[in-house]
Every structure is written in structure tokens, then in C-alpha cells.
Design goal:
With about 575 residues, this protein is an alpha+beta fold. The protein contains 16 helices and 31 strands. The structure holds adenosine-5'-triphosphate and magnesium ion. Magnesium ion binds near residues 209, 407 and 410.
Length: about 575
């Protein structure tokens, strides 16, 4: 490819809505263009990178024995109704009707589809395990599409589905995918960490997310400073914290005018926040009020609350619902409430505390010296708070640290959730019919590219790892009017491509400064400059984008090998 022909319109100004560097750079460098919210075109540079990522994914998936297929994007509502997800998927699902009024959706994921596909044809234990995958556009009407390819409404996903005879088989398939994912992200040059993830309604410990490490990541993760434990904060287990022993004092009411936040209450009562209990009120698709109580400085974890009550998700409860349960927004406390009118969840740390302050379920009133084990009413005591840095590790004596991550992939044990719902059974050795054990495994292809750019850039632009860069090398003749230079550059360009090094030639009649700027912005791993001065030294000048290191490579030697060696040392 010649830059004069390359369709990569660069931008000087990026729209204000682009806040992440990866988003800005991909727009500026002419990788992508936005059509509408969360809908992007991949221009040639992005598409080449995407195809390289897809190729890495294919190689690693095929290596595990998984087979590539392609299923329809348009899915009939019936299969989603059978699994029970048509109604719970909610507004994120793009729904449509055909000319006969039948309902369909644009696939946000394909568990129903794959289960339907295999259910009558994968029927003997002899055919198991089987793993099928596809690389395809997925559609999700995200509430907040943003950050370019990171969270879009149409995006490319690799999704794989494994089928096994039993739990032990699923463990093996899961491990294979986990290992393949590690190799895929290693090969893409991404700095990542697999973390334990919330498996939602399915429960158990069967899910990991692969997180690209980046301060701008939307996901919070915690990891142990001593052992291997790492988890999404949504999932991270919190052991109950101890509190100093104290003799219980008599419960007292105090007037706390206008103090409707825990900070205001503690400062008014001059009480340490670690001796206070705060409340958060939720409701869910199941209806009913759920009052959650945690230590004043802790945060309630909505995912844990949803799991505790068996809901898909929870939302803040409206004020009138709170009043109906006999309490007052801003002054809720777990004393004297009626558990028939609401569900009361108390975080296990709270039960270790003594002489705490909490709301008294009346306007402008709080209790002090409340003794949880003596005074609180509750439905259930359990872990409902979000882990924070400094918490004790749930698996060793170490402590947790916090980091931000970009979820680039997730692996998931589904067990028999979909096979049971959709009747995907097989016959075992004895001819008995049993549901297959399934796993599902996703990678966001565009998000992986965005995450890599987020990790590797500087003030001048992107720094693409060689494995997924649109081109590995750019050959840049300084002056297109200098025939000898141009000829040499052409020769190098052809020779490198002929030897399997993915090379582009900047043959534009532009000032050298412009060419240098664009090469840096686009992030080619290696730049070769040919000019009168380098020709006089009988050399090409080679610059490595990721280190800035410059060196001369002789023109009359085996420069292909020399460049291969240099490329080996790039990202
Ligand atoms: P998130 O929590 O970020 O919304 P998710 O957990 O809903 O993602 P999965 O259903 O696990 O996503 O999908 C598998 C992978 O697809 C994710 O790990 C992510 O890399 C990618 N992905 C999901 N949603 C989007 C999106 N809106 N835009 C781009 N990639 C996405
Ligand atoms: Mg996920």
C-alpha cells in the first residue's frame, strides 16, 4: 500500500465528546468514523488491525479444537421466550418485526441461538465435548454508548460456546478457553489481568473477566498484594471486618435536624463514620422494597444485593415506597421496622460493631449507642458491600489493592441453564437423556483494539504493537523529487513486503515534517527514512516507535534480517 492511495483521513480537531485518548487518536489518525451514537465505520487502518486481532483469535481458538461457524444476526423472539430472557433483557435489546408482525431481535449474544442450533443434532456423548465459535457483529442498545469502539451499539464479538457431558468436562473446556484467552491477549500485546467475575443468577464461581489494565477503564478491580487473588469489585468477596469490643450502652434518640446524609449526621453528632450505619433503599423487577445497611464509610454493592434477592438488577427505590414501609428517606435505620413490609439486608461487618449511630425512621432523628445484635431487625445478614483497597484478602493474610480495567473478554460456566430451558439433551453411555453442560466465552474485538491504544500511546499518537499494527513498517522517502531516494525507497518497500514484512510506502509529495507526524500518529512500529544524507552514508535510518531508538541499517547488507531483528524487539 502507498500512503498516497490510503484512505485514512486525519483530523486536526476531534469532537469534544471524545474523552478517552484511544477514541481521540482513532478519530484523528483516520482509523474510524462515527455515523451516529455507538455506530462506527472501520476505515482501512482500523480494519487491518481488527483483522489481525481476529486472525490471532482464530488461530488460538482453532488450536483448542473449537470450530468456526456463522449464525444469523437476526433471531426470532420464540427462542428467547423459551429461555425466559425475552422479557428480562430489557431496553438493551434491539427489537424488530418482520412483514408478518413476527418479533425478532438483533443478536446481543447467541446462547439461545446456539442451543437451538445443536439441540437436535448434538445428541450423543460420543460427540462431546464440542466447541463452536463465530466472529460477528453484535447489537446492544447501550444506555450510554461512548468511548468510541469501547462501548458501541454495534460491535464485533468473538463468541464461543462449549458443550460437555458433565461438570468435570465443563471444567476442562473452561480451562482451555481461559488459557486460549491468555494467549490471545498476550499476542495482542495487551497488559491484562484475569479477574473473578460475578456469574449473576447462575451463581457459583464460574466466571472470569479479562481486564485490560488502564486508569480510564470503566470497571473497578481489586487484587491481593500477596497471593494471586484478583476480582471485579462487583464480585470481590468481603470478609466481615472486626470492630473493637465495647460494653453496650443504652440506646438513645437524638435530634439531628436536616442531617440526611451519613457525613452530616456523623459530623453533627461528632461520631466517627466507622461507628455509623448508613442505609440505601432499592427496588427491583420483583417489586418490593429492599433496605440495605452498611458501615457509614462503606458502599452498598448493587450486584450483591440483586444476587441476594434473586433479581436481575436493582434500582434506587422511590421516596413514596420508602414511606409506605414506615420509614423516612434520609433517616432510615434497622430498628423497629417491619420485615413484612420490606426486606432488610445487613452487611456482616455491621453485626460486629458496637454503640453505633443510625437512622430512627423519623424525620430529623437518629439513634446513638445502637447495638446491632441487640437492636436491629433484619431479614438476612450477608456480604453486601463493595470491596475497597486495604480490605483483607479473602484467601490469604494479604491486603487488597485497587485498579481500573477495561473488560476485553469474559469466560462463563453456564452449566445447564440454557440446555435445560431449551431441551438440549444428549444420551449418555447408558442411553439416559441428560442436559449438556455449557460454557460461553466472549471477546470484544473492537474493544481489544481500543484497549491496546489506550495502553500504548504518547503525545504524538499511537504506538501499535507489531502483531496488530495496520502495517509493521513505513518506508518514508524524504523528498519525492530526489529520484535516487525514491527508487531506493521503492526497492526497500517491495523487498520487505516480498519477505513477509507488512510494509507501507509514504509516497506523498509532502514535507518531511508532515510525513513524520502522520507516521507517529498512526503508530507504525518501525519507520524507515531514506534521504540524501542516509544515502550518502549508504544506510536507511530506522526508528522504533515504542522506544524512540534510532539506528542505521546498511543498504548493501541483508537489511531484511536486520529489520526482522529490530521488529522482534518492538512491542
Ligand atoms: P460490559 O459490562 O462492559 O457492558 P458485558 O459484560 O455486558 O460488557 P459480555 O456480554 O461479557 O459484555 O460480552 C463479551 C465481550 O464483548 C465483553 O467482554 C466486551 O469485550 C465486549 N463488549 C460488550 N459490550 C460491548 C460494547 N457495547 N461495545 C464494545 N464491546 C463490547
Ligand atoms: Mg462481560
Amino acid at each position: 500500500m502507498r500512503v498516497s492511495k490510503l484512505y485514512a483521513p486525519t483530523l486536526r480537531e476531534v469532537p469534544a465528546e471524545a474523552v478517552l485518548e484511544s477514541h481521540k487518536l482513532m478519530l484523528r489518525a483516520g482509523y474510524i468514523r462515527k455515523l451516529a451514537g455507538g455506530l462506527y465505520s472501520y476505515l482501512p487502518l482500523a480494519w487491518r488491525s481488527i483483522r489481525k486481532i481476529e486472525q490471532i483469535i482464530r488461530e488460538e481458538m482453532d488450536r483448542t479444537g473449537a470450530q468456526e461457524i456463522m449464525m444469523p444476526i437476526v433471531q426470532p423472539s420464540e427462542i428467547w421466550k423459551e429461555s425466559g430472557r425475552w422479557d428480562v433483557y430489557g431496553e438493551e435489546m434491539f427489537r424488530l418485526r418482520d412483514r408478518h408482525g413476527r418479533e425478532f431481535c438483533l443478536g446481543p449474544t447467541h446462547e439461545e441461538m446456539i442451543t437451538t442450533l445443536v439441540k437436535n443434532e448434538l445428541h450423543s456423548y460420543r460427540q462431546l465435548p464440542t466447541n463452536l465459535y463465530q466472529i460477528q457483529s453484535k447489537f446492544r442498545d447501550e444506555k450510554r454508548p461512548r468511548f468510541g469502539l469501547m462501548r458501541s451499539r454495534e460491535f464485533i464479538m468473538k463468541d464461543a460456546y462449549s458443550f460437555d457431558a458433565d461438570d468435570a468436562g465443563l471444567d476442562v473446556s473452561y480451562k482451555k478457553m481461559y488459557d486460549a484467552y491468555s494467549r490471545i491477549f498476550d499476542r495482542c500485546g495487551l497488559k491484562y489481568r484475569p479477574v473473578e467475575a460475578d456469574p449473576g443468577a447462575i451463581g457459583g464461581n464460574g466466571s472470569h473477566e479479562f481486564m485490560g489494565i488502564a486508569d480510564s477503564g470503566e470497571a473497578g478491580i481489586v487484587y491481593c498484594d500477596t497471593c494471586e487473588y484478583a476480582a471485579d469489585v462487583e464480585k470481590a468477596e468481603c470478609a466481615p471486618l472486626a470492630a473493637p469490643e465495647e460494653a453496650p450502652l443504652p440506646l438513645e434518640k437524638r435530634s439531628t435536624p436536616g442531617c440526611n446524609t451519613i457525613e452530616a449526621v456523623c459530623s453533627f453528632l461528632k461520631a466517627p463514620i466507622t461507628k455509623s450505619v448508613k442505609a440505601v433503599a432499592f427496588t427491583s423487577e420483583l417489586g418490593g422494597l429492599v433496605l440495605c445497611f452498611v458501615r457509614g464509610d462503606h458502599e452498598v454493592n448493587e450486584i450483591k444485593v440483586a444476587n441476594a434477592i434473586g433479581a436481575n438488577e436493582v434500582a434506587m427505590a422511590p421516596d413514596d415506597m420508602i414511606r409506605e414501609a414506615g420509614t423516612v428517606p434520609g433517616f432510615m435505620g434497622p430498628i423497629g421496622l417491619d420485615t413484612k413490609k420490606c426486606t432488610i439486608l445487613i452487611d456482616s461487618t455491621v453485626m460486629n460493631m458496637h454503640n453505633v449511630c443510625c437512622g430512627a425512621n423519623a424525620k430529623d432523628v437518629h439513634y446513638v449507642n445502637a447495638e446491632p445484635s441487640r437492636d436491629f431487625v433484619c431479614t438476612k445478614v450477608l456480604d453486601i458491600r463493595t470491596a475497597v483497597a486495604g480490605d483483607k484478602c479473602p484467601h490469604c493474610e494479604g491486603h487488597l489493592k485497587e485498579a481500573r480495567g477495561i473488560e476485553v473478554g469474559q469466560v462463563f460456566k453456564l452449566y445447564t441453564k440454557y440446555s435445560a430451558a431449551l431441551g438440549a439433551n444428549y444420551l449418555d453411555v447408558n442411553g439416559a437423556e441428560k442436559p449438556m453442560y455449557m460454557g460461553c466465552y466472549g471477546i470484544g474485538v473492537g474493544r481489544t483494539l481500543a484497549a491496546v491504544v489506550e495502553q500504548y500511546h504518547d503525545a504524538n499518537g499511537m504506538i501499535m504493537p507489531r502483531s496488530i499494527a495496520p502495517y509493521e513498517v513505513i518506508v518514508l522517502p524524504l523528498n519525492m523529487k530526489d529520484r535516487a531516494c525514491v527508487q531506493k525507497a521503492e526497492e526497500i518497500y517491495h523487498t520487505l513486503n516480498a519477505n513477509g514484512i507488512d510494509t507501507i510506502l509514504d509516497d506523498r509529495d509532502e514535507r518531511a515534517g508532515v510525513k513524520f507526524k502522520d507516521a507517529d500518529l498512526i503508530g507504525y512500529p518501525v519507520r524507515i527514512v531514506i534521504g540524501p544524507k542516509t544515502m550518502a552514508r549508504n544506510a536507511m535510518e530506522v526508528k522504533v516507535r515504542c522506544t524512540g531508538a534510532m539506528s542505521d541499517v546498511p543498504l548493501d547488507g541483508d537489511y531484511v534480517t536486520a529489520l526482522r531483528d529490530i521488529l522482534e524487539q518492538t512491542l
